[in-house]
Every structure is written in structure tokens, then in C-alpha cells.
Design goal:
Number of helices: 4
Distance between the termini: 26 Å
Largest sheet: 5 strands, mixed
Number of strands: 5
Strand order of the largest sheet: 1-3-2-4-5
Shape: globular
Order of helices and strands: EHEHEHEEH
Strand content: 25-35%
Helix content: 25-40%
Radius of gyration: 12 Å
Structural class: alpha/beta
């Protein structure tokens, strides 16, 4: 998994505590080492994490090492970006995207 600066990793074990119980909305990047688009979106997520700190939390989940969470939310394609708010998923986006498009898609959550 490409580690993104300023973005924490979560696991099956701490997903509930880190994501579902978060006060802030959380964007979960479901990612994998073998996924080229995951590497493409990494710098975009790093920028958004830095710019939206305090309003949005961004975390990564390696689907190969955390199959329970991947299965629980029906994630089949990488990268899947899923926004959780108040303990439930409120938005799901599949595939790499430009920063401007991602921010537009997140505008109602921020």
C-alpha cells in the first residue's frame, strides 16, 4: 500500500473506533499495493487531507490485509473512496479522480 503523507492507516480491528465513532466526516481510501489508480490518487488525497484538516479526516484501508471491512461495505474496485458520517457511509466514489472533482463531490460533506 502506498503510504500517503498525513493519512493514517486503519484496519479491520480499529475501523469502528477510528471511522464509525469519529466526530468528523471520514473519507476511507480502500486501496491495494497492486492498484495503479490507487498510486495516482495518493498525491490528491495527501493534498486534500492537508487542506481540509479539522473538517475531514482521510484514512487508508489496505483491502488485502483487511478483508472483513472490505466485504462489509461491498467494496469490489480499487480505489473506492467512501465517506462516513455519523457512523454510516454517506457517499461512495470509485476510481482515481482529479482534486477539483473530488472536492466538488465532497462539497456537501465539508
Amino acid at each position: 500500500m502506498v503510504q500517503i503523507t498525513g493519512v493514517e492507516s486503519v484496519t479491520d480491528q480499529n475501523f469502528a473506533a477510528e471511522v464509525l465513532k469519529s466526530e468528523l466526516p471520514v473519507l476511507v481510501d480502500f486501496t491495494a499495493d497492486w492498484c495503479p489508480p490507487c498510486r495516482m490518487i495518493a498525491p490528491v488525497l495527501a493534498e486534500v487531507a492537508r487542506e481540509e484538516a479539522g473538517r475531514l479526516r482521510i484514512v487508508q484501508l489496505d483491502v488485502d490485509k483487511n478483508p472483513e471491512t472490505q466485504a462489509a461495505y461491498g467494496v469490489l474496485s480499487m480505489p473506492t473512496l467512501m465517506v462516513f458520517q455519523g457512523g454510516r457511509p454517506v457517499r461512495s466514489m470509485v476510481g482515481a479522480r482529479a482534486k477539483a472533482k473530488l472536492l466538488r463531490e465532497l462539497s456537501d460533506v465539508l
